[in-house]
Specification:
The chain is an alpha/beta fold and about 375 residues long. It is about 30% helix and about 25% strand. Helix 11 links the parallel strand 17 and strand 18. The structure holds magnesium ion.
Length: about 375
């Protein structure tokens, strides 16, 4: 009895604020989606895989899914979850008689869990893994704030995925979907069509990653290492421009030439932060041909870079910058520059280091024709909970 797994990886792929859907974020050396796919690719009882992706993609489908050893096809999702499952089912080969449906946002489905679901599906026709409720469960009618009654918690089961279906059972359930537009899983549609659904023990590690807090927990479980990035910037020094470094005006007769304010400290730190998250560089996010960024203060780029990595679940753990500048002396301003960088990044000033160096009169920087900066940034698990 061949088995196929449909991995549902999101509807439109859009979230409020334009954040990347969680299933495409890195969890160690792979994305959450790739880990979810790999769990089924590695399972001896699974023969084929179908991945349902958002309709609009920035990246090609094969890259998003990652390498698989088993036949794997992709299709695009619909408006609702059940539309995505319908599209996925349409790509399941005719010889398959057990279909598993799994949320891409659950990257920790164990081999034993998958086997339990397949076994119960063969017995009963449909199966869900579920956890028993640990907390006391209260029933509160919608729109109310008063408890109407306490539900015996022994009767409460919290459903996970993969859910398993005999092919004919899933086909019937999906065709009943239009009558049940608010169904939150396929087992609910099977129940609605009068079918039996067997509950098998779930797995407490088989969490669904929805919030950044979930992502942080998952990254700790996956022992995700901190990420380091480097940055470099140089600007020509010309008369008639102020020398501004991370928002601090350093008195001098020349300043950096640039589309923005030419703040080498902020620009190198931004590149280090983006580099640590493998998200390109400052020019990709803030193009120097875009009028929005003309004369933009460097601090604003810092703030935005921290937000870009933050929405992908990273926080800036520390930053170290070396500024190479022949004149004037940076030392009197270092304290304030550190405070301004820290404030823009939303971190403690003790996590920001700034050092000044001269180039001993050697080369263009040494002759005072330019200012340069080298930066490193470390990102750790734990972006803001967006
Ligand atoms: Mg620059």
């Amino acid at each position: 009895m061949p088995v196929a797994a449909i991995i549902v990886a999101g509807g439109k792929g859009e979230r409020l604020g334009g954040a990347t859907p969680k299933q495409f974020l890195p969890l160690g050396n792979r994305t959450i989606l790739q880990r979810s796919v790999a769990a089924f690719d590695a399972h001896p009882l699974v023969d084929r895989i179908v991945v349902v992706l958002p309709a609009k993609l920035d990246t090609d489908a094969t890259t998003l899914v990652g390498l698989t050893s088993k036949p794997c096809v992709t299709t695009t999702g619909g408006e609702r979850r059940q539309d995505s499952v319908r599209n996925g089912l349409a790509r399941v080969d005719r010889d398959i008689d057990v279909v598993l449906v799994h949320d891409a946002a659950r990257p920790f489905a164990s081999a034993a869990l998958i086997e339990r679901v397949i076994g119960a599906t063969r017995r009963t026709g449909a199966a869900v893994p579920a956890m028993s409720a640990k907390d006391t469960v209260k029933f509160v009618p919608a729109g109310d704030s008063l408890v109407q009654r306490t539900i015996p918690r022994g009767e409460i089961w919290l459903a996970q995925t993969p859910q398993g279906f005999r092919r004919s059972v899933l086909e019937l359930a999906v065709s009943a979907g239009d009558a049940h537009p608010n169904a939150t899983d396929e087992a609910m549609l099977v129940e609605a069509t009068g079918g039996s659904v067997e509950v098998v023990p779930g797995d407490e590690h088989n969490v669904k990653i929805t919030t950044n807090a979930d992502l942080n927990t998952a990254r700790r479980a996956a022992e995700v290492a901190p990420r380091v990035g480097t940055g470099y910037d140089l600007h020509r020094l010309v008369s008639g421009r102020p020398l501004v470094l991370a928002g601090v005006v350093v008195p001098f007769d020349r300043g950096p030439l640039g589309h923005s304010d030419g703040d080498v400290i902020s620009h190198s730190v931004v590149d280090a932060i983006l580099g640590a998250a493998a998200l390109g560089d400052i020019g990709q996010h803030f193009s120097n041909t875009d009028p929005r960024w003309k004369d933009m203060p460097g601090e604003e780029f810092l703030r935005r870079a921290a937000a870009i990595v933050g929405e992908r679940g990273w926080r800036v753990a520390n930053v170290d910058v070396t500024v190479v500048l022949e004149r004037p002396k940076l030392a009197p301003h270092v304290h304030e520059i550190r405070a301004r960088i820290a404030s823009a990044l939303g971190i403690d000033a003790g996590l920001v280091s700034v050092k000044g160096k001269t180039n001993e009169g050697v080369d263009a920087v040494g002759r005072g024709e330019a200012i340069a900066a080298h930066a490193v940034a470390v990102l750790a698990i734990g972006g803001p909970d967006v």
